[in-house]
Amino acid sequence: LAVHIQTSRALMVISLLLGFFGIIVSVVGMKCTKVGEEDPVTKSRIAVAGGVLFVLSGLCTLAAVSLYATQVTYEFFRESTVPINARYEFGSALFIGWGAASLTMLGGSLLCCSCPAKERRGQQYYRQTQPSTAREYV
């Protein structure tokens, strides 16, 4: 096979593996699961790691589909002996790939937004209560 097809295939396999591990890591990082740590800050950090894996998976998918589309465009406009009706055109798989990459990166970025706030050690605020014996001035 041609080099661009082999490269696209390798990028898609990497994307599938990253997406698979992203699913596993983000399920472990969900607050509703009992897997792993019980600390909510640690769970949030694990969910962010899953989001990063999803974003990387989407980028690999986007690169693979765009590489193939670039090659198709190059072959289409290149002067060759191949007749116009026998040349490749964009198929629905390319548009599905671009849509899947966009949705994967959107979902990963939403998971990354669940980043925990910085811990507020030593900044605990206590509510001051009213004294039990209030003085009344008459």
Automatic annotation (TrEMBL):
It is a multi-pass membrane protein. Keywords: Cell junction, Cell membrane, Membrane, Tight junction, Transmembrane, Transmembrane helix. It comes from the Eukaryota. InterPro entries: Claudin, PMP22/EMP/MP20/Claudin. The chain crosses the membrane at residues 12-33, 45-70, 90-113. It is found in: Cell junction, Tight junction; Cell membrane. One of its GO terms (cellular component) is bicellular tight junction. GO terms for molecular function: structural molecule activity. Belongs to the claudin family. PANTHER family: CLAUDIN (PTHR12002). This is CLD19 protein. It comes from Sula dactylatra.
